[in-house]
Amino acid sequence: MEKYKVIERSKDTGSTYSLLNKGMIPGIVYGKGTEPTKIAFESKILLKLMHTGSFYSTIIDIDINGKKEKVLPKQLQYHPVSDKLIHFDFLRVQNDTKVTVEVHVNFLNQETCPGLKKGGVLNLVRREVELSCNANNIPNELQFDLINSEIGDSIKISNITLPDGVIPTITDRDFVVATLVPPTVEVETKPAEEEESTEDSKEEKPEDKKEENKEDSKEESK
User: Fold this and answer.
1) How crowded is residue 145: how many other Cβ atoms within 10 Å of its Cβ?
2) Model pTM?
3) How many domains, the chain?
4) N or C: which end of the chain has fewer CB within 10 A?
């Protein structure tokens, strides 16, 4: 695993504003039973890690002045106006540290899934599942094979194989992760004005019939 060199923040490293101007993002590393450490991470490297798709479930090895640390990203803070990243929180972890992470669910064989080939739609109830596990046992992703899935099927957490020692944080029910639903059928409707004109042409108003009867009686009297 690649190690990323960071700097420890002090009075000599300057203010938060000056660090941001130098392309560094200030942050903090904390952990149970340890003192928090203020650090700064190079902006372009941190942003690259953030866009890997599994940022919050990936252990990062960092080097703080020669001291190696394993950390797990926990929180990012953005500027309220510019929306730029301005601060981060990392959790200091050991291999046996219990962590809570959200892990992406990948659905395999969508191109050969019988239900999808019949026009069904995969409705994702949860794109990610929150899991509890040791820091050294975080899965990169969860997988479910759609090779035999039909329209009407529900994929629940019990249908997904989890690694040993990994459990969902929701334990009181077998929750749904995705469903395979029928295709949406659009019903063509006529505009209201067109419907009204059609009804008018099919059925004459009672007043119109009365007027016609009056005209007919006048003609007969003549």
Assistant:
1) 16
2) 0.71
3) 2
4) C
The angle subtended at Cα 141 by Cα 140 and Cα 146, nearest 5°, is: 155
Structure tokens at 185: 């059928």
99, β-bridge pairs? 133
Q: Specify the pairing of strand 67-78 against strand 167-168.
A: unpaired
pLDDT per residue over 46-74, tens digit each? 999 999 888 999 999 999 989 999 999 99
Residues 71 and 112 in one domain: no
Structural domain of residue 138, as residue ranges? 99-181
Distances (CA, A) of 58 to 25, 28, 126: 19, 17, 20
Domain final residue, candidates 181, 197, 212: 181
Whole-angstrom Cα distance, residue 134 to residue 112?
A: 35
Low-confidence ranges of the chain (pLDDT < 50): 218, 220-222
Q: Is the dihedral of CA 141, 144, 146, 152 positive or negative?
A: negative
Radius of gyration of the chain (CA): 32
